[in-house]
Amino acid sequence: MTATPARRFRELIAAEPLVLMPGAYDGVSARLVARAGYEAIYFSGGLSSSSFPGLPDFGTRSLTEAVAQVGGAAMATGLPILADGEAGFGSVLALQRLVRELEHAGAAGLHLEDLDVPRRCGHYAGKKLVSAEEHVGRIRAAAAARTDPDFVIVARTDAIAVSGFDDAVERSRRYVDAGADVVFVEGMETEEQLAAVPRLFDVPTMANMVEGGKTPFLSGRELEDLGYALAIYPTTAYFAAVAAMRDALAVLRATGTSRDRWAQMATFEEWQELTGVPEAMAILDEYGAPE
Q: Which domain does 128 fall in, by range?
């Protein structure tokens, strides 16, 4: 029997000293992550929201958009995907629907944050928390909803910026007791905090590396040495793509041609190959109506 994405993800976490996951925000970026040789993908809510529908990371995605976006990346790659479940998109009823639909879409797990609405990116100011009790209920509801027992539930806390490091640790312990498989302390502000977290828990821990964010930016090797089991780099590909588009468009505006940027651009042939045009043509030739 073929292992589910969740089972493969758990096996990867158990086998590797560190699972390093760049962020994808659509099917093409997910394919590029896979082709670069990574074994799992992180699917960012903030970046998929800012990609479509072009809005900031304040919980503006809907549940159905989130599931469709993750499902597209799963279909495009077949790799285990850790999805950003934000704060569950509503009540615990909505959260349980989210878990079941993400499983059906091919995700390997999700992370849930203890933010109140309007929830926001973990590196923004002005965050508000729900009570630890409320988030314990979310974690318990998520664990109860999964039909695949291997589906990974990551408990994220944003408490450092609101109530301090000690409360973040205490909350995370409660979330583990409620059924979380992985601890994710978001928005750590010092290398001392980064170093402390893996030593404080008996379950795997995850670090979030955002270029220019609040957390000191460490390499995967450094995070591995600290004891992290997972590391996500959600913004790397997106920031690189934004800069490349910005520069190419500036050249086109200034000169009336993109020719001077061709050496830095993908080719028409590469785009076709990446998106599966030859395979689609073959299917049309075999099954399509003759002209």
A: 5-235
User: What is the spatial distance between Cα 165 and Cα 150, in angstroms, rounded to a whole number?
Assistant: 30
The predicted structure's pLDDT at residue 290: 73
Largest CA distance in the chain: 69
- Whether 112 contacts 63, CB under 8 Å: no
State the sign of the Cα–Cα–Cα–Cα dihedral 61, 65, 71, 75: negative
Give the helix/strand (H/E) hosting 48: helix 45-51
Tally the residues of the chain. Answer: 291
pTM of the entire predicted model: 0.94
End position of a domain, from candidates 213, 235, 257 = 235
User: Could you say which of 192, 212, 235 is where a domain stops?
Assistant: 235
**pLDDT, the chain, mean:** 94
Indicate the number of domains in the chain.
Answer: 2
CA distances from 262 to 118, 215, 239, 243, 258 (A): 42, 36, 20, 15, 7
Whether 122 shows a pLDDT value over 70: the answer reads no
Q: Which two tokens stand for residue 153?
A: 């539930």
Which residues in the chain belong to E strands, given as ranges? 19-24, 41-43, 81-84, 109-113, 152-157, 182-185, 205-208, 230-233
Q: Name 61's Cβ contacts closer than 8 Å, sequence gap at least 6.
A: 45, 48, 49, 69, 86
Query: Which residues 6+ apart lie within 8 Å of 152 measured at CB?
Result: 6, 9, 10, 13, 82, 108, 109, 110, 181, 182
Q: 152 vs 53, 107, 109, 142, 236, CA distance in Å?
A: 27, 9, 4, 10, 24
Give the integer Cα–Cα distance in Å for 138 and 242.
35
| Shared domain check, 68 and 212 | yes
**Tokens of residue 286, six digits:** 């075999």
pLDDT in tens, 73-84: 999 999 999 999
The SS3 assignment for 124 reads coil
